[in-house]
Amino acid sequence: MLSAASRPYIDASVPVLREHGLIITKTFYRNMLSAHPELKNLFNSGNQANGSQQQSLASAVFAYAANIDNAAALAPVVTRIVHKHASLGIKAEHYPIVGHHLLGAIKEVLGDAATPELLAAWAEAYGLLADALIDAEKKLYESVGIKPGELFDMRVAEIIEESEQVKSFILKSADGTALPTFQPGQYVSVRVLLPSGLQQLRQYSLSDAPGKDYLRISVKREVAGKETPAGTISNWLHDNVEVGCTLSISKPFGEFAPDVDSNEPIVLLSAGVGITPMIATLNHIAARQPERHVIFAHAAGEAAHHAHRADVEKAKQRMPNLQSVVFYENVKADDQAWQGRMQINGLPKWNREVTNVYLCGPLPFMQEQRAALLTAGVPSQKIHREVFGPDMLDHLL
To answer: 286's torsion region: left (phi>0), alpha (psi -120 to 50) or beta?
Structure first.
């Protein structure tokens, strides 16, 4: 628990972090990666380049300060970080490095306003958070029986073109060892060694149900946007991986866990490549509880960008109570889809007070849908989301 002496300084930091948080985190990453270039292997170079990693850390620091007495609000965030860190192989010895450069960035940006008392308070607060993360990550590593950073070789047995942008890679054990168990909604990290010598790890949701003799990941080719670079790893995987290649992956991690054990109705809403954990969930339910009531809605730019349609059609054949709805921004005459962005009033009706709703897709999509769901009477505790990439923690700020 944070000491009484430090608490006023952390409380006073909230408006300061709101104003200066982004420049602090930019300074932090610049200084830390300059002093420890080996850590570039652990950080997503694309998210560094487009600024989302810095924005996410700024949001996390601000959310931590603003909710330091609200353990219930912070617990899901901490759990998400723990799983992400485990998928990357974060070690206890990394935390002092992060703490040193975070405090240094606060001092550099705030100057004389970063008094010794303020820095001491943040050193204490960071120490408490670091200890909690180290302990939780140690337990998670032990629970799955691995050491930090341990990866496993998988053979690419098949590659499937799911859409113009998405390829599925069917992975089988390279040495015949048993595949790891996982829950629908979880992901694995895939390691790629680039020609530059930089090693990068990327997380991809497992896109089929557990219990098969393979693991499946589905990768969207991320093209360059007006303000964002092309996805280095997604393009590398699309352009270089062939059947017979070996990929090194982590054990499955991730706290996003749609309810696949009960018989209660469930609502699965996705957009873009956010369909992948939802397909794993749908396929699992189709195999185990085909009579269950499921609303499965997906949004895409157009039919050519709609991945995993074959999975949904196969599920429909087994699930009499599956209701599937599609939204395309660009609809052609023969498309069985709503025109435009996903709208709650375009979905089948459900008991909004008691049914769990799961979201996955681009952050603006989830923000828009969460707001619409709340307006429609869905309690916040019934809305669950999986964020691909850095989380802006907008629900805590």
So the answer is: alpha
